[in-house]
Amino acid sequence: MKIDVIAGARPNFMKIAPIIEAIIEAKNAGNDIEYRLVHTGQHYDHNMSTQFFEQLQIPMPDVNLSATSGSQAEQTASIMMAYEQLLIQEPTDFVLVVGDVTSTMACTLTATKMNIPVGHVEAGIRSGDRTMPEEINRIVTDAIADYFFTTTKEAGQNLTNEGVKSEKIFFVGNTMIDTLLKQQARFFAPVFFNGSDQKSNGFIVLTLHRPANVDNPILLKELLTQVVKGAEGRRVYFPVHPRTQKVLNQMEIDWENLILCPPLSYLEFNFLVQNSALVVTDSGGITEETTVMRIPCITLRDTTERPETCTIGTNELIGTNPILIAPAMKRVWLGQWKKGGIPELWDGKAGKRIVDCLLSM
Ligand code: UD1
Asked: Which residues are annotated as catalytic?
């Protein structure tokens, strides 16, 4: 069985690492399974892509589709055209996609139309917010994929509600957490990290990249103002996504306690998170990592496709109104934040469970 593993954007890389490792192990144990790693090129910078392959010891991609960036439609079309050519010239037996980025949906559409079965890892999660491109990617992918690997029972229930047969749904756990648990001992401090922060009052990690938060410079400035205010003198480390950087380039920002830096490597970013007092973010994946590391997390969104990070974990959604930020941060400083627990099967073995399923198909 020859499997294409698709990766395109930063949040995909930590999800594919344990799957590839499990495929290699299964092959070495004598099973008839091999993979081809296809990078769509959606994220292309060293900071957003290459360094993840190096740090997470992911084998270099076998193919790079070199998709162009641009609008959602342009990017989708570019990935689909390049992947279709690859499948015509060098077919595969099965396609495995992960997460909810444009590459996930584009490769699923391409493969399904060529009658190649597709498995979706992290299937069934839903925010209910169709203004987010990721939600459309999830819905489209799950409408046409053939096998569904889920991180929670609730995600499986969402799929059942949408008419997916139960024998196609496999509750396997969370491959992003496989990577976190495996790499935790290797986390290291970025060079600019100030160790005294940790010992005194603690520090904050901030990430923002959603169009709704970053595309309007006035809103972005107000969000930053309120995070700095709520920090009450603590340092705020802010690794800046390329999309956000483009907007910041048009603005004046000068706060002593706001430390801006380019996107960090996986091991450095998670060092900061693990040692922080609080994370403020609009990411989805980071809320899973803070849950497992039991770090308080404030999410600047109205909805989440990962409700377990709020009901079980340390995450709380406060929406995108900047005036709500400082009062929420205050609750952390007063020791009033929930401690949180860990969702079922987020135990570091999801990659192996997925490959066991593939072998039994
Ligand atoms: C994508 C994913 C999102 C994920 C995020 C994390 C979709 C719809 N969204 O959003 O789910 O949380 O990645 O990073 O797939 N750019 C660079 N260098 C790069 C990559 C991108 O400068 O290496 C620029 C692009 O040219 C573009 C902007 O960043 O102008 C946004 O990139 P894009 O891949 O379209 O979406 P993200 O906002 O990164």
From this structure: 209
